[in-house]
Amino acid sequence: MTTKRQATLTLVKQFGLVAGFCICSLLVIGVLVRLSQSSWQNKLRLRVQATLDEASFGEWMVGRFVPIAAPLSLQAACYAIYTGAEPSGHYALIIRIQTIYGPLPAVFRYHRDEGATFVAFSNVHGRIAETVKNNPGDARILYWTRRIPELFVGVEDGR
Questions:
Q1: How far, in Å, CA of 27 to CA of 80, rounded?
Q2: Residue 86 burial (CB < 10 Å; 0-12/13-18/19+)?
Q3: What pTM did the predictor assign?
């Protein structure tokens, strides 16, 4: 009876060690993700700003990060954009879209009254940019143009 009890106690200790290791690992990963989140948002903000500058010659200024109703798997980020100092209700989204050249970050502009508009693919230049630009009826771009307004449920202008 004591050997069975010792074996059970050994198994419980081993399980506790494995469970503790898993919990500690998840906590460390969670802290690291939280710490890198602002860096991730700032770098995406710079990419969105560069793409908008290329497409509209500095007309838009990218502002704060805006949380949207997007599932984790979407891999999208949203920012308020301004033409002046006042909030205009316009937003810029950067979304990873699968293309014939692989996954590329696409930038869209959105306004509640105007809907979503494709701006350009971020960091795509030369022949690839011309090929993509000459295909405005791309089903993926049309899909996201229709899908983006659903992501803004609960987002208020100027908040």
A1: 32
A2: exposed
A3: 0.75
